[in-house]
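From the shared-data thread, chain only:
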Amino acid sequence: MPGRLRAVTRVGCAARAVRWLGPGYGRLARVTAPTPALVELAVAHGVATEYWDWQGKHVLVSSEVVSAVLAALGVDASSPERAADALAEHQLARWRRTLPATVVMREGWTPWFAVHLPHGSAAEVWVDLEDGGQRRDIPQQDHWVEPEWVDGVQMGEATFQLPGDLPLGYHRLCARIGGNPEISVSTLIVTPQRLEPQKLHRTWGWVLQLYSVRSRRSWGIGDLHDLADLAAWSANDLGAGFVLVNPLHAAETAGRMEPSPYLPASRRFANPLYLRIEDIDEYGDLAPAERDRVRALGLQTRVLNEDATALDRDTVWAAKREALQLLFGVRPSIGRIAEYGAYCDREGQGLIDFATWAAISDLHGPEWSKWPEELQDPAAPDVVAFRNENPDAVEFHCWLQWQLDEQLARAQARARSAGMSLGIVHDLAVGVHPDGADAWALQRVLAAGIHVGAPPDAFNQQGQDWSQPPWRPDALAATGYAPWRDLVRAVIRHGGGLRIDHILGLFRLWWVTSPERPTEGTYVRYDHEALIGILVLEASRAGVVVVGEDLGTVEPWVRDYLTERGVLGTSVLWFERDANGNPLPPERWRELCLATVTTHDLPPTAGYLAGDHVELRDRLGLLTRPVAEELAVDEAERDSWLNALRERHLLGNSDGDVERIVEALHRYVAHTPAKLVGVALTDAVGERRTQNQPGTTDEYPNWRIPLGGPDGGVLIEDLPNNQRLRRLIGSLSS
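Structure, as tokens:
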């Protein structure tokens, strides 16, 4: 199987491991195991040199992969000598800093921290609080640490203790050494112990891909008005408590728009494709000729709502962009001008950088790595000059984000006023497009030349390369985690909850060093106490629930930690089995989780029951064993669930009735203690086509399947009279 250690031999002085790299590579490849010195250096930087794969097999990581990952962290391990030098530099680095880059603590904790200063000097330490106050009760501890010679100066380490009653928030930890007027400053973050999901009332909600859910008023793509309408109807008529949508992150606005919502240009900002043109305030102030043109554009794109085979983002965006340009030219009222100014002030430089990237993309294309070199650095003088010379182009993209902010707020307000306990639950993707806005604006905190992915698992046996540059853990800490804070705050601003895709990435991420071979990678550790702590702090301030997608290869302690911090997990029926491989009884499922039957990486349940996912992967060449064997295993797994349904008297003599089986599976999930029960809208209308097949790009029309059922396309207006839908929702309480 991929990644499995098959044999170890001795060749000369170096241990070499022989590993099968997966089908298609044509041979057994020999890789050099890391030396003890390289292992020590890797461990110091949080880089794994070994791990356990999805089958419980121990895997050694090659020295080539380890060195490549270290290089992306700015560490030269290209030779034993340079690796030794790098380790020595790493060990001295903390002595060269007066204060740690960032200190993260939980409320009530009293952690120690180190202050480095010339041996024999005195330190004055205090905390400047977020609200403008100050705390000077920071006592020094009687804790001796041997001095260290650093750059010809003997440095000492003084230990101080933070008080346990510091308020939640982002503060400044300050130190002055001796009589030196210079003040050293680092970020101090005080986070809640946990969120309180136990107080959450049990409820159910839709899980859907918004772009695919259209109405007769849509411009060929589901939009934020559609979302608000669906939420209001579902709350009033069906008693739903939330709608979990795909990531609404920004995509390219020039050239071909990336269809995957999980490969965005920016995670902090949103996609103007989701704007409802007629809901923009300035629509009513258009001149007659311009309004006629906008209406004509709407009529042209509404024809696309009749196509139940595929979505056409590019045609829709071309029409919407033309309409938005006309609306941008309308002179707003003084109140609207003030509101826009307040939005821009709140978003600050991040908004300016995003809008600048978008404006340059309009001229040079969306791939910033192919721009003129003088425009590839957001702080470069030529970028500033471009902004000054093209103010309207930059302003247009700032204005688009303001419009999105308003419509997102309106959707959440309508959901809550209709009676939803949570409202809109947003989704946060793992990372961003390597040539997108965030990768350009935040390149100093991202690892160049590396992609995020996943090692082989049962459903993706060749591993995955998600093409996204990962955060650099060291660079994030150096910024006080500011990019992460800004991102989380933005995504949850207009919602009642947040789902974190692959939340395991806040603990460790699979860094792929060779895009052609996603098996060629290793795990890199992150400071989960900092990342999860900030997530909990922002969620607590916003009053939202957090759901972590914790599927896949999970270290056992990770789920315990997330529960401790009040973060809900994710339980998908097909994956919930006991230690013997049998379906997990519903009473043994987790309470603190979002429970569903399926996920967007699998076909809707009707398609899964038919084995569509196996046939599709076979057709695309993604299987690593014969299709007959795969189908047999898949059938056995499905039969085990059907037997479990019969044992619970949830399924009668309905083996051939797919609709009844789908209802029974959802009834099984409803019998669990899960706080949140998610129902895929595709299951409710009888859709079979999958939205996404991992491991493919254009081999399958990923993220381009409109909502449909057995009789063709399904629009929002069709839902109230859809008896299949009503029977399925009724099964949740029967």
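The CA atoms of residues 308 and 713 lie 5 Å apart.
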